[in-house]
## 1
Amino acid sequence: MKCSDDIIRLKGIGEKTAKLFYRIGIHTTEDLLFYYPRDYQTFAPPIKIGEAAKDEVVTLELFLPASFKWKKVRNLSIGSGIGSDGENRISITYFNTPYLKSRLVAGSAYLFRGKIKKENGAYHMDQPKIYTWAEYEEKMGQLQPCYNLTAGLTNRTVAKAVEQALNCYEEEEYLPTDILQEYGLISKTRAVYQIHFPKDWDSLMEARKRLVFDEFFLFLLSIRRMKEYNEMLDADYPMIETAWTKRFIEGLPYRLTNAQLKVWEEIERDLVGGKCMNRLVQGDVGSGKTVLAFLALLLVVSNGYQGALMAPTEILASQHFEQISSMTREYNLPFKPALLTGSVSAVGKKELYRKIEEGEVNVIIGTHALIQEKVSYKNLALVITDEQHRFGVRQRESLSEKGGQAHVLVMSATPIPRTLAIILYGDLHLSVVDELPAHRLPVKNCVVSTSYRKKAYEFITKEVRKGNQAYVICPMVEAGDEGTEGLENVTDYGEKLKNTLPADIHVEILHGKMKPSDKKRIMDAFASGDIHVLVSTTVIEVGINVPNATVMMIENAERFGLAQLHQLRGRIGRGKEQSYCIFMNCSDKNMSMDRLNILNKSNDGFYIAEEDLKLRGPGDLFGIRQSGAMEFKLADIYQDSEVLKKVSMTVDRLLLEDENLETERCAPLKRYLNENTGNFIDFRTI
Ligand code: ADP
Ligand code: MG
């Protein structure tokens, strides 16, 4: 068996299961190897109800004196019952799990695992997992990997498949021996094994150390080389300044901030300068980066060329498209925009491709893959990526094959402390929009515990009555994944909220697993005000602009990184009304309160990122990830910033000693780089 083999060749994986794997992006055994666990669980022996700390996830052995009662409330089926451990009783509730009706038999005992709550002196558990003793014993005393799953695919199935894939995995060591020794790193092959099936916490840390090192190392190696490559490139589309941009700036309903004007000057100078632009624009959420993108596109289009704007999500792409379309009408701009996303029909796409090729449209807005892959452009002179950091050599080359060398502008709202930005963006010129538009009311924040929830709902109701809208954010899409007990999920929460809030308040849900067309329908209805309260995962985190939304309530706020929470909060405070952000802290650890209080005190993304960096120590490595900050799988630029700095020096030293990796010492590394161009990093053949 080879690593490139389709997973369908693994034992126990038939066509149906394979399809589930494909859905989560796993096609080959190699994909499986690098599908790292999201978390690890330890299963402690069951305890007595009275021994549990408040809100702790525990396992209880409970006897059921009577069978559960099931009822239907609207379209939600609710089961409730009582369990006893001989000393105390606890009430248990299930939502939408009718298959449990036959499983839970009166007079029997089971193991229930979930978060224990105590309200008014009574114990309670929502949606606990059920185990038999045999099932539970198998899990006790080990670190169990927890994978991200999809409906129908169990953690067990994934773990079994990974185990088989590991059996055929053996990687030649590519790091020079002296580097391995200097950092005390284990082999890659062992690290991959141990990240899936660690014996204990130490062996997990050992594995993580090696893999984090590699992620940084390979990434930095590629961007160091990219910089030299980028700086040599002449732009193929000569441009001059035009009157359009000035007229557009003057026509805007607001004045650009000084920071926006400064950055626009930098962009304009690049575009007319003859060399290829490679610029990163960093600016806090709400600093007004979109208008800078439109200005750049306007300069390009008024010079007779095409420009593309890529967004990470369809929602954001269509929002940009609508904004640019309405500006085009309003200011009579020379834009001929087109929207290219997965929701466009095959026929529609074909027609669009033709128009793009023949130059009938000059601004193409869409999601990354679509814009990059199948399209031939007439004269693409500028590529902008919004809310993304990387535009690699490979992507650049695939575009230039279709025409000449385009300018590249990358826009990001992820605040990254300057010391790290210099390392991570060594290949790009950096512009910072370091000022928010004036006259904007700062968001009012509060960090509260779950007992405040009822008040929060009343507050949301009040705001909706005033004509405003609210977001509620939950960390999970649906219930059921192991290790997520006690975490709120969008699906159940949406139902609960529909039943809790007054019936005329329109509540809907939104998450990444929905069909793109459904997502768009919901987002449009929210933007137009038809939906009052949107219960969502972090899919709304990037870029969305609905100025009428004034409340954001974040459940399990302790589970998100501060930078991410700051991004989320950036969705409100965009209009004229006062906005409010409610961070619901569902943990009773002091640490989470301290962290969340940083957000409470400040609305400055860069300050927050710096403070977060200071507060984080080792430990809790898997609980919180700054998702979206960088495309690393394990490494976290905040958490692992010290490693990042060290690796950066190591890479510099290595390239200084052996610029083209020609020595014996670097031969395996060079081989590896040449064979692994398909990773997230874009290696040019060295
Ligand atoms: P981000 O930097 O997060 O992408 P946006 O570009 O979405 O921010 O801008 C946020 C909001 O601020 C938009 O509604 C935009 O129209 C508005 N805006 C942008 N620049 C200014 C400005 N100089 N003065 C007032 N409002 C502005
Ligand atoms: Mg934006």
## 2
Amino acid sequence: MQFFIDTANLKDIGEAQQLGVLDGVTTNPTLMAREGISGEDAVRNHYKAICNLVTDNVSAEVISTDYEEMVREGTLLANIDPKIVVKLPLTADGIKATRYFSTNGIRTNCTLVFTAGQALLAAKAGATYVSPFIGRLEDISTDGLNLIADIRKIFDNYQLPTKILAASVRNAMHIVNCAKLGADVATSPLSAIVGLLKHPLTDAGLAQFLEDHRKAAAKSVEQQ
Ligand code: E4P
């Protein structure tokens, strides 16, 4: 499974990249706003900075909601860097724009997916990635992981090449469960990726190993 980081924060992206496990980045207008980025020039420069930190797969979301504007804005985003994946909302205009970009060889990520039917539509339009939001479904007491399983089954039934990008992934267990269900990618904040590192027995075991080593070293010095 590929790991994407869900942020526009350069420090967090750099930290995940340094860990050596990062395959890409997803952003959205809220995440860009959180970094204080607005205006065409600032957006372009920020995406350039993100692309310079990672090897590929930087999802850049359009703000436009009608087809013509989505095509215009998405084309500008795609021209920033070949690593850019144009992120489009799952609306009728978004699906039309997805078809436009896939026909023109530009990678897309269909976002705000909450049903298997929406995912199927995105795949039919040639989306590179489809982003089901599992955390937001759980926020309204709905099983987000079931959605991943349903989409996996449908895509496998017809060998659809669209990748399942599990989104709104908020903790380490979400990542593990998405992996168990066969999601192709999980995008999450740095805290969830780092959360995968943690287990108290790892910390206790390491402390014990180092203490035993220290004692043995001290003993061998005494014996000299
Ligand atoms: C995905 O592409 C979105 O940017 C993101 O995963 C949304 O996550 P949230 O529901 O935690 O805001």
